[in-house]
Amino acid sequence: GKKGVKSGYWKFYYANGNVAEKGHYKNGKRVDYWYFYTPNKIRSNEGHYSQGKKSDWWLYYDARGKLDYKCQLNVGKKDGYCIQYSNGDISSAVKYNKGKKIKEWRDMQALKGKTVFPLEIMANIKVIIPAFNEADSIAEVIKEIPKSVSEIIVV
Which of 45, 112, 126, 142 is exposed most, by the fewest CB atoms within 10 A? Predict the structure, then answer.
């Protein structure tokens, strides 16, 4: 590649020797899946980059390394759903359009019930998206969902 332009798999370290972040570069820009850690090895966040910008799902963890919230991003802005967790359960959700909040759910029974999928969609596609540990597989699942499906809550 060009001289001085980052390419391939990179790992960055804290002064104490622990990994700070790791992921791939292409033509000097972050791409694909990246992982970030605190100096004491706890996962802090992880997610996809496209052309150096955050995209797709990003997961953010609390100080103990438990999932705090996850958001869909597009060119670094919230675009889609942000889902907040409390003790492993969904506590609230917000839908964004290009960084602007357009809808919010505080009643989790409603969120888990009827708003998960409109029934006509459920009849046509059988897609269940799990609360994911396997980040790459969810990206694949989401790609399989028809573009016409706009209201998807990932639980």
Answer: 126
